[in-house]
Amino acid sequence: CAVAFILIERRVAHPMLPPHLARNAVLGSMALAGAAINLTFYGTVFVFSIYFQTFLHYDAFTTGLSFIPLTAVLTLSTLLSSRFAKRFSAPRIITTGFSVQIIGFLALSQTSAHGSPWLLNGALMLVGIGSAMSVPSITNAMLSSVSQHDAGIASGLMASARQLGGVIGVAVSGAMIASADATAFAQGMSNAMLLSALALLICIGVVVYVSRRP
Questions:
Q1: pLDDT tens-digit profile of 86-123?
Q2: 132: exposed, middle or buried (C-beta count within 10 Å: 0-12, 13-18, 19+)?
Q3: Which of 101, 132, 160, 211 could disulfide-link to 74, CB 3.0 to 4.6 Å?
C-alpha cells in the first residue's frame, strides 16, 4: 500500500501530500516520532492487559485500575512539558522524553509473574511520563515546520502516522505474546518491550540527525 501510494502520488496532478511536504525532513521525523509513540504505548497497553488478566488473574475492573500509574502521570507531565518548551528546544525535549520511556521499557522487559509490583508500576510511570513529555513538542515542531496554509495537511499526516503506529504496535506485540505457555508468553512480552525501546532509540537518532542538519 505504501508503494502504491507513492507511485500514485507522483503521477496525479494534485497529490494529497504535496512534494514540498514530502521532502520536509522535520515533518517526516515528527511523523515518525508520533508513530513510535502510539506503537509503543498501545502495544504496551495491549500486552499488559492480557498479562494482568491471564497471569495475575485480575478481573477487568482491577486490570483497568492497574493502568493508573501509566495514565495518571499524563496530565502532569503534559503541563510540565509546556513549561519546558519555553526553555528548551523541541528536539531536546523529545529525545529526553524518549530516553525516559526507553528506561521504562527496559525495566518492563524484566517483568515476570512473580516480579515486584513497585518495579512494574514505576516502569509504567516512566513510560507515561516520557510519552506525555514528548507529544506536545512533537506537535509544536511539526506545526512550526510548515506554513499556515499546509498546517491542515501536516496535522492529517501526523494523525495518520499515529493511527498506523498504534495498529502496528498492537499487531506486532500481539504476535509476540501469542502463546498459552507462560514461559513463552513472558519471553514474548520481554521482546515486545525491548522492541519498543529499540523503536524509540531509532527515533532519537533520526530526530538528532534532522535537528543538526543546516
A1: 788 889 999 999 999 999 999 999 987 777 788 888 99
A2: buried
A3: 132
* Cα radius of gyration (the chain): 18
Angle between helices 68-84 and 90-108 (to 10 degrees): 160
CB-based contact 172:132 (threshold 8 Å) = no
For 193, the enclosing helix (H) or strand (E) is: helix 182-211
Domain boundaries along the sequence of the chain: 21-211
- The confidence score (pLDDT) of residue 202 equals 96
Q: Which residues contact 171 (CB under 8 A, 6 or more apart)?
A: none
The alpha carbon of residue 207 and the mean position of all alpha carbons in its chain are separated, in whole angstroms, by: 14
- Residue 112 and residue 105: Cα distance in Å, rounded? 14
Report the phi/psi class of residue 57: left, alpha or beta, with left for phi > 0 and alpha for psi in -120 to 50. left
Alpha carbons 76 and 10: distance in angstroms, whole number: 44
| Contacts of 161 by beta carbon, 8 Å cutoff, 6+ apart | 31, 32, 34, 35
Mean pLDDT over each residue of the chain, to the nearest integer: 90
Closest listed residue to residue 114, CA positions, set 182, 162, 21:
182
Residue 211: all three cell numbers together: 535537528
Q: Which of 27-31, 53-57, 167-171 has the lowest mean pLDDT?
A: 53-57
Residue with cell 504476535: 175
Q: Identify the residue whose cell numbers are 513510535.
A: 36
| The pLDDT value given to residue 116 | 79
Q: Which CATH class is domain 21-211?
A: mainly alpha
